[in-house]
Specification:
CATH superfamily: RNA polymerase II/Efflux pump adaptor protein, barrel-sandwich hybrid domain
Distance between the termini: 40 Å
CATH class: Mainly Beta
Number of strands: 6
Mean pLDDT: 84
Organism: Chaetomium globosum (strain ATCC 6205 / CBS 148.51 / DSM 1962 / NBRC 6347 / NRRL 1970)
Strand content: 25-35%
Strand order of the largest sheet: 1-5-6-2
Radius of gyration: 16 Å
Order of helices and strands: EEEEEEH
Number of domains: 1
Protein name: Exosome complex exonuclease Rrp40 N-terminal domain-containing protein
Helix content: 10-25%
Low-confidence stretches: none
Length: 78
């Protein structure tokens, strides 16, 4: 099941060739990524590294395993 998106683990350094660049727009980091000055971008969660060169953005797709509040209260009411 090859999707073309690399899998990253927390604390790994991201290869600079995977980071999108745009001459005018600043790089936008989404959920799961952290900038460590001066140049490191490090994932904070495990998942797929997704990049969007058109928007000059990148983020990590991951399963957060969150349970909705309404589901939690429904289960407790039973």
């Amino acid at each position: 099941m090859a999707t073309g998106y690399p899998i990253v683990l927390p604390g790994e350094t991201i290869d600079p060739s995977l980071i999108p660049s745009h001459p005018k727009n600043p790089l936008r980091l989404g959920p799961g990524l952290r900038h460590i000055p001066p140049t490191d971008i490090v994932p904070t969660v495990a998942g797929q590294l997704i990049t969007n060169p058109a928007k000059n953005s990148m983020w990590i797709e991951y399963n957060s395993n969150r349970v909705g509040v309404d589901i939690f209260f429904e289960e407790r009411a039973r």
